[in-house]
Write a structure and sequence with these properties.
Blueprint: E1 3-6, E2 11-14, E3 18-19, H1 34-46, E4 51-53, H2 62-74, E5 79-84, E6 86-88, E7 93-95, H3 99-113, E8 118-123, H4 132-144, E9 148-154, H5 158-164, H6 170-179, E10 187-191, H7 203-209, E11 213-217, H8 249-254, H9 256-272, H10 281-290, E12 296-299, H11 305-313, H12 321-328
Parallel strand pairs: 3-4, 4-5, 5-8, 8-9, 9-10, 10-11, 11-12
Antiparallel strand pairs: 1-2, 6-7
């Protein structure tokens, strides 16, 4: 697989990563099976998808434990990314950016991941009660201690920005400018996909201008852009999509033209014979993300070997100028978190 670099430290990863969260949290609990997920992680590494993205809050904790089982055998082949800063309660999630907590959380993640160093340690959310510089300073000390190789920041939630009338990622950019004064940011993680393009306006260029890697979260639109979801089929109560306005039966039906467009492009590439027998809408969606810049690494979530293999194949798909123009002309997605 093509390799891409993250940040000024030029940390190398496969062009397509693996988001491990669905294996343990937030999606369809009845389909989460540890051994099947473990096979998916191994399949990703086999195909060059070296970036494994997890967080201590996923589960909580069980996702890091699962990834750690794979790392025990194949640590040298993987690029390990995990996150800190959020605590999961019974019915709520709270931020904790206290320096002492950050250091204890890192040690706990190292134990669960069965490794002595985390390649990329990301601040999941800043704690409103603690200056972000203090949290970031504690994370920088972990780099000095040899427990972490590089630091990253996850984008501020979008809903607050929309309510205030600000641009989507203004809050994230302000945080980035503050923490950059303390220690270099190697990567920023934020949503980017064919149906969520807001990062293209300011955040992606901001990262490109500073040599900062961009990890594209939800590049398959929470599964919608794969074309495998049926409108009206519904979701289990613990699935985040059960409460997402874009995943009501009405909105899923209204947004089908987006998937149809991806399918048309996929069919053209499949018919050309240049990319094997079949190209899928998901691969086109990932190839579009890859085409947004050499500093961009999509991190699609998956928990089955079949999807991991398909996602990795997108790294070899090259979209033409005609393809990119067709994607740009697709209807805007209807429905939002608002």
């Amino acid at each position: 697989m093509e390799r891409r670099t993250i940040g000024a430290a030029a940390l190398e990863v496969g062009a397509v990563g693996l988001g491990c969260m669905p294996m343990s949290w937030a999606y369809t609990g009845s389909r989460q099976r540890g051994e099947e997920s473990l096979r998916a992680v191994h399949a990703a590494l086999d195909r060059g998808s070296t970036l494994l993205d997890t967080a201590d809050m996923y589960g909580p904790f069980t996702n890091e434990l699962l990834v750690g089982r794979a790392l025990k055998e194949r640590r040298s082949e993987a690029f390990v990314s995990t996150k800190v800063g959020l605590l999961v309660g019974e019915q709520h999630i709270v931020a904790n950016g206290r320096p002492g907590y950050v250091k204890r959380a890192c040690d706990a993640s190292l134990r669960r991941l069965q490794t002595d160093v985390i390649d990329l340690y990301q601040l999941h959310r800043a704690d409103p009660e603690i200056p972000v510089e203090e949290t970031w300073g504690a994370m920088a000390e972990l780099v000095s201690a040899g427990k972490v190789r590089a630091l990253g920041l996850c984008a501020v939630g979008a809903r607050s920005a929309r309510r205030s009338g600000a641009r989507m990622h203004d809050g994230t950019i302000r945080q980035l400018e503050r923490v950059q004064q303390v220690f270099p940011v190697s990567a920023v993680q934020a949503e980017l996909s064919v149906w969520s393009t807001e990062a293209l306006a300011a955040l992606l260029p901001w990262c490109a201008a500073r040599g900062i890697g961009f990890l594209a979260a939800m590049p398959l639109g929470n599964g919608f852009l794969t074309g495998t979801l049926t409108p009206g089929e519904g979701f289990e109560p613990d699935d985040v999509r059960a409460r997402h306005p874009r995943f009501t039966a009405e909105m899923m039906a209204a947004n089908q033209p987006i998937v149809a467009g991806l399918r048309r492009i996929a069919r053209r590439h499949g018919d050309s014979g240049d990319h094997g027998d079949e190209v899928t809408p998901a691969q086109v969606a990932l190839a579009w993300v890859l085409a947004q810049g050499r500093h961009v690494v999509p991190v699609p979530g998956a928990k089955r070997e079949r999807w991991v293999t398909q996602n990795a194949g997108a790294a070899a798909l090259r979209l033409t100028a005609e393809d990119l123009a067709e994607v740009a002309g697709l209807p805007r997605a209807q429905g939002s978190w608002d």
